[in-house]
Description:
Blueprint: H1 2-10, H2 27-39, H3 45-67, E1 72-73, H4 75-93, H5 101-127, E2 135-142, E3 147-154, E4 161-170, E5 175-177, E6 183-185, E7 191-192, E8 200-202, E9 211-218, E10 224-235
Parallel strand pairs: 4-10
Antiparallel strand pairs: 1-2, 2-3, 5-8, 6-7, 6-9, 9-10
Amino acid sequence: MVFRTIVCLLLLVLALPLTGACLQCDRQVRHLHEDYLLASSHASVEDQIELKKIIDHTYFLYQETSERFHGVIDPTTLYRARTEYQSEFHKFMKRPVVDDMLFETILIMEKGRQILQKHLEIFSQTGLCPNKCGLLYQRVMDCSTCHYEMRTCLSPGDQRDCGEYHLRAEEEDQYSREPGLTSCQSSDSGVLVVTPDSRIVLNQLRRDEQGVYRCLLLDGDGTVLSCMHYVLTVTPSPLTTPRHVPTLPYPSSRR
């Protein structure tokens, strides 16, 4: 009787509109719930209707949870939440048959909400807009529409300058850097060639090549996403010790 009362209380909010949610957006999770409803065909018609209501309301809880964490999720976080929930759901399906199937269903659905919340908390703290400087475009899913979109991630204060780095190399050495650059300029404003794999290479360094190099990361429209400065110091190569070549004395003349 107590369990039935809990079910009824939880279903009182079903009049609220149901929208997409992060785990509901995952096709495998939806199939998991559909298979569960099919496997419950032995239950009474009334219980089957209640099971469907519980699952539908769970999607509302997923949505409500995601909205507390910016309402978006990235593909990796969604995968982690889904696989953990699948594991728990498979354990639930192997449980011994219980009398109150509705209450047990509520428990596993709440477990899914807790799993989603755990992964969203981690994502919102470390994975959402992780750039400390520069402009970043991040592909995320909107949990209300189940559609992927590009989120614009601005660094604190829209800081595009990502700092200055000091580098040291010797003459005749090769220096390379691959920070995802598409444009690089030396201190005299000369544009250097950047390879297709975003690598800049300086071969056989000379002393006059030292200085400040400003490297820009650009998008397809030419917008500067980030800027970095490299202060390159070229030191003289160590002098090689001249090799001593022994000389033979001239033979003395004989009479």
